[in-house]
Amino acid sequence: MTTVRDIFSSTKSSTFITSGSFGEGLEMRGSDIDIMQVDKSIKVNEDEQHDFDPSITCLSMETDDVKPGFTQLKLDYSRSQYIVELCEEHNGKHYFSSALWKGNMLMYKGDTIHGPCISDKGGLLDNAFSLHCKTWISSAVNWITRSSSSWPSHNVTQSIIKHGVLFVPIGVHGSPKEDLEWRVSFSVAEKLLINTFTHTQLICYALLKIILKDVIENDSECKDLLCSYFLKTIIFWISEELPSSLWKPGNLIPCFMRCFSRLVYCVKHSVCLHYFIPENNMFENKIEGRARDVILDKLNTLHSYGWRCILFTDQISNFDVSMWNFPFEPSTLYINDVNKIVQSRNLHFANCFLETYSELDIVNKGLLHNIWCHHVSLKQLYAYYISHRCRRLAQRLPLDGSIINNKNQYKQYKSCLSTLLMNLYHDAVSGWLMIASLFYKTKQYSKALHIIRYSISKCTSDKLFYGLTLSDIHYQSFKLLPFNKKSVVYLLKILFVDLTRFHVNSPLTPYEIVIEGWNQPYFFPSTAYAFCLSALCHNHLNNVKHCQDSIHDLKLVIEEQYLMSDWGYKAEAYTLLGIALQLFGDKESARQAFLQSFTISPDESHNSAARRLL
Prior knowledge:
By secondary structure, the chain is of the alpha+beta class. The chain is built from 27 helices and 13 strands. A hairpin with a 2-residue loop joins strand 5 and strand 6 (93-96).
């Protein structure tokens, strides 16, 4: 899912790569979303030899007097005044500044610089604005022939070399040239390596990460001394040393203890060599002196318990085995996949992030992938994300409410409608509500109500939504043979209820919802939006009784929190209630609804209820 979403996110100007634990398929508790955004208008070469392209900025690496694994980037050619202003001159040469590059990427209020990344206000997204070198660099060339084992395979090695390397904007801490230095990143290579892991390798990696997060970092003296990247590096080295045949379930405990013992050894001797560039000791000037003694004492204590050290982590000690049947029923892993998807905050916000970019060629590219893909599950996945993108694309098309009397406007309407019909394939409800919104904005209120009633009929108690804790009803349903023969993506299409989302300046947003000067998207629980839109339609048709009934149903949906998670969207449901009440003339009740919304989510920059109270 992550790989396909990255393909859809990438545009003519940028490539997006989901990295970190989430990108590796290991969503850990408390982890955020790490995105590498690679600027295609800037090309890095190891030397000054470039294929001339006036539209491309050309940089070359300079590694003299720079720590291994880092480089300075010298400007060779650029027609962009913007790029030139981000350079600093030294000894007659211009160097691209990593500090200025990062500082210029602070685009939103609340954004902060976090290492090489820009972190959003909520701390959910780390975005590393990166550069790319298409060729493999000489400082890592020994890696290609170093391994004498079967891991990684020749094909994987060649694929890694083909992808080249990336550069992220951060220098060596304390270096006199820190602001001009860039770190060489092998993020793509590391994802490809982890994709080759056996399940046993993956479990060893996950257990080390859990011990780090739950036990080691809970000690204030040990916090921030170690990081997941060190653990990943250790797993890579051991994977290269051991025959692949040893990484099997029966050897899980000795494999895990070997990894843990290597971690203790690395800390004891203050040595953790970078996997691709061994000349870079990542523990240098970090795991030394008092810091080394503190973390070593902690690790030795844990190591003395053998594999049972994992029981000190609450994720393992409190692991709920009641949902697992031994031996496994055929439906167990399928249900677990569904549960991970609906409980994943990162997946939810990654999909939201996907929709901030919407070029028509991306949808066409997705259609081509779908046509030429021979794997049925991947074809369904491409269709799923094409549907996501069409929701955004439909909201970029011009639309006028008077469609009947103007031929061009009617064409716009038909184009919008056909795009929205492609938006029906990623969930069971929200796509239909977007079509109802189109009918509403074009004053076809009876048609809108017909679609709304159909949407509401699909909002049954067996449906899925983000933040849901699966009930017995869900477990019993998923055990049915017809479900087990379908992909999880297919299940999302028929059972999932997504949010109804309107982007900034969307022509599909009902007039009554739009607030002047508001530059944020609207995210509404679909059940709440359905009854609010129903009330708006009945109001235009002067159906007073039906309008009252819709408002009453909206109140019930909010009170029961029906198909609505605790992830902050209940506030938006109260905002919808306030809008409907205000329209109906009950200003005091509307005010109370807006106050309730603001109480739940008091962030004025993201909750429009505050402005509606003025």
